[in-house]
Every structure is written in C-alpha cells, then in structure tokens.
Structure to design on (343 residues):
C-alpha cells in the first residue's frame, strides 16, 4: 500500500483567520446556550387533534393502517376531548365513518341535523365547552362513490356541491362547531359558506380553508379510517391541486381569503413545506398544516421496525412545520406530543 504524507500548505491560515474569528459553534456548546438562541419552538398551543367518529356506544375500534388511532363512538369521543383539554390541546377536528346504508350518490346524510358529526359536536361541547371543535363539510364520508362532491354523469358538479356544503356548514355551526373547515376544494365554497353562516346568525364561526389541498398519495390510511377505501370511482384530480404546482396554490389561497376565509391550511404537510412558507410570506395570515395519515403511518411503521427513534422523528417533523411558518398543526400525534411537552 502506498503511503501518503499530508503536507500542510505553506503559510496555512489558522481557523480563526479562515472564519474571521466568527465561530458559529460557540452558542451550541451547552444546553442552556442552545435553548437561549433557539429560533422556533413547538408548544401544546400549536396542536389540533383529528379524531375519527363511528356509531354505537362504548366503541373504540382500532384502525389497522394507523397504529394507536381509533374510531370512537360519541361517548368515547367525549372522553378523549376531556383528555385533550386536560393536556392543554386547544382544539380537535372530527371526521366521521358513516355506515354504508346512509351513503348515497349526493351525500345527502350530511344535511341530517342529527348525523354523527353534529351529534358528536353537541356532546363534546356539552361536556368540554372550553375546547375548540373544527368540522369538515366535505361530502366524501357521506357519498357512495367516495368523492368530495356530488357526482353527475361521471363529473363532480361544482355549484350543486357548494350549495349543499354551505347548508351543511350551517347545521354544523348550529350544533356548536367553532370553525368550519371545508376540504372539498370546490370553487366558491368559502364565500357561499360565509354568506350562509352570516345569514343564519353565525358571524362568529370561523372558516379554516383547506386552501391548498393537493392530489396526494399520502391520504390512503385516512380513507380506511373514514370507510371510503375501495369506494372511489376515478380520482380527485379535477378538484384537488396538482402536486407539481406552487403558483396555483397561491392563487387558490388568495381566492379563499378574498371570499372570507379566516385562516389557511396546507394538506399534506411535510412534502409541502415550501407551500406553507410561500403562503405565510405572501399573506401573513394564520396558516396551518395537516400532517396527514400517510405521514403519520410512515413514522409509526419505521419506528415499529426499529429503523428510527419514533418520538424524536415525531417532534422533529412537527418543529419543521413551525420553522416553515405554521401557526398550528393538525396531527394524530397531538396527545403524545402534549404529554411530552408537559414533561
């Protein structure tokens, strides 16, 4: 083997000469100094917990594709809302698994004042009035075809869908929802919902727009959770945003704000940090991200196999949202994160 002798360059500069005495490691040398200069922090106030609802009583049904996540009957959802409030989580978001017999082509069951979403909202508000409740008026849990809108001759019809989701938003507000978060991506839905809420005396109910919901492959486990897996005919690319597009996402957000949205959401989360940053810089509005089921499941699966430290990756992924400009994150990790943050 040939030996190589390293020759120090003649007149080689010292590290202080190279850096101009600017040593960036100085403030990393100790835990106290790292904490002192930390730029972003995750707190329990940043957390929104999405939960899944199902019928029956005392039901806590595991979701195979989402370890440690359950479908909850209303009574169990109340218990979990009480737990969330004790942990300091500001708000929960509810998503229903509607029984097959109540699904139809138009998702008409969403207009039942006593449907699962509204029943859960009333029960949670009665037991835990201090926690915020966020509800979605998309039709996909209610349709027999799994789309977010009304299907006519193979086409998702925009205006008829908007009329229905606006009516559903009023019913959800009447049940006690604090924030309506429409995820269907129909044109004009934000303005129609705002008009309907205001006309019915719900001026104080806010709208969190899924302003930039992308046609993503990360939603798979969620569709199992709400019972739409296998139902979907075609895809959702005619109304969700192409995941290649960034300028289009900005235009969607701008339109929703003009129609009356109070806050913006980006969905999915980690693959779209650039969108979060653009929206925050462009509009300076409350901006949220949804760490969706596929993101959650990847972390859980890798941790279960011993490939990563699940809790450290969980916390790092959520801090990434804060660094990108998020004011809050919808995450299935919320209860565990709250426990860690409380020590």
């Amino acid at each position: 083997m040939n030996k190589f002798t390293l020759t120090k360059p003649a007149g080689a500069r010292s590290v202080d000469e190279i850096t101009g005495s600017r040593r960036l490691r100085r403030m990393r040398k100790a835990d106290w100094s790292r904490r002192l200069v930390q730029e972003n922090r995750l707190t329990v106030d940043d957390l929104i917990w999405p939960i899944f609802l199902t019928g029956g009583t005392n039901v806590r049904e595991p979701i195979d594709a989402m370890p440690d996540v359950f479908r909850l009957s209303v009574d169990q959802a109340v218990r979990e809302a009480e737990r969330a409030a004790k942990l300091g989580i500001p708000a929960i978001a509810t998503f229903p698994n509607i029984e097959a017999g109540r699904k139809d082509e138009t998702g008409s069951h969403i207009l039942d004042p006593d449907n699962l979403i509204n029943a859960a909202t009333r029960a949670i508000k009665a037991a835990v009035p201090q926690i915020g409740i966020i509800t979605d008026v998309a039709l996909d849990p209610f349709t027999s075809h799994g789309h977010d809108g009304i299907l006519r001759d193979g086409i998702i019809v925009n205006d008829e869908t908007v009329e229905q989701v606006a009516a559903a938003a009023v019913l959800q507000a009447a049940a006690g929802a604090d924030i309506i978060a429409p995820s269907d991506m129909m044109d004009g839905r934000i303005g129609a919902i705002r008009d309907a809420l205001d006309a019915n005396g719900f001026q104080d109910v806010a709208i969190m727009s899924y302003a930039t919901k992308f046609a993503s492959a990360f939603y798979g486990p969620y569709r199992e959770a709400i019972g739409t897996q296998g139902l979907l005919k075609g895809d959702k690319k005619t109304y969700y945003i192409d995941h290649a597009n960034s300028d289009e996402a900005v235009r969607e957000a701008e339109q929703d704000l003009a129609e009356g949205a109070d806050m913006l959401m980006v969905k999915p989360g980690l693959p779209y940090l650039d969108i979060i940053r653009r929206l925050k810089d462009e509009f300076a509005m409350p901006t949220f991200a949804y760490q969706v089921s596929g993101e959650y499941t990847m972390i859980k699966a890798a941790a279960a196999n011993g490939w990563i430290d699940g809790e450290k990756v969980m916390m790092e992924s959520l801090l990434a949202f804060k660094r990108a400009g998020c004011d809050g994150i919808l995450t299935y990790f919320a209860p565990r994160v709250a426990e860690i943050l409380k020590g």
